[in-house]
């Protein structure tokens, strides 16, 4: 089967174009016939007609080839689109991973910073605690030292006061003892003088003779009992001495004596006789 082709177009297309051209030419003619203007001559388009042989099998192969090429192009476009989509997804995943990594690093940095801040706070709290404890220990030590100094001062003061009291007591005791001794000696001299006034020395008395008598009295000065403690060896001497004691009667001078001194020294009184004197 042969097919007439003009400039690569089928006959039907050529006929349609020719008919449209004729109609257009008629319209132009009618339009220009109404005016006195000079009409331009329209040159008709020259259409080349080429006669070619049309093979249905070749046409089908061409169509199949076109379809194959179209499919290949669609596949290439689909693959390109898929590749672009995958690249886009990969890029998005990389961005997401990078963002996640950045967030992790940021979180890690924040965690490290927070950890450092917590450690710094803990160090400051520990330092403050140690400072307060050291201050408390120092205060306690100072208070203890102050108490020790105060206790030492109190002990020294108490010791000094005790020494002063003991000194005063000793001084008073010495003074009392001295006063008591002097008082005893004074009353003893009175007793000796009174007995001496009533004593008659016997002719047999000789120097060196000594007789000791124990006299028991009451605070009124009355004599309750007289006993010889040590004999002189001369009965006449001993008898004369005992009579002198009884003649003295009551020693009224002892009535004003303090009771404690009387009880300790004169309730039982030892009197010594010697031929040369009457000193105890």
Spans of at least 5 consecutive residues whose pLDDT stays below 50 are: 170-175
- Sketch the topology as an H/E string, one letter per element: EEHEHEEHHE
End-to-end separation in angstroms reads 198 Å
Quick one: biggest sheet?
3 strands, antiparallel
Number of DSSP strand runs:
6
Can you describe this structure?
- This protein is mainly alpha-helical and 280 residues long.
- The chain has three domains: 1-54, no CATH class; 56-181; 198-273, Fusion Protein Consisting Of Minor Coat Protein, Glycine Rich Linker, Tola, And A His Tag, Chain: A, Domain 2.
- Helices cover 66% and strands 12% of the residues.
- It has helices spanning 11-33, 56-197, 235-248, 259-265; strands at residues 2-6, 9-10, 49-53, 211-217, 223-230, 268-273.
- A three-stranded antiparallel beta sheet has the order 2-1-3. Strands 5-4-6 form a three-stranded antiparallel beta sheet.
- The radius of gyration is 82 Å and the shape is rod-shaped.
- The model is unreliable at 170-175 (pLDDT under 50).
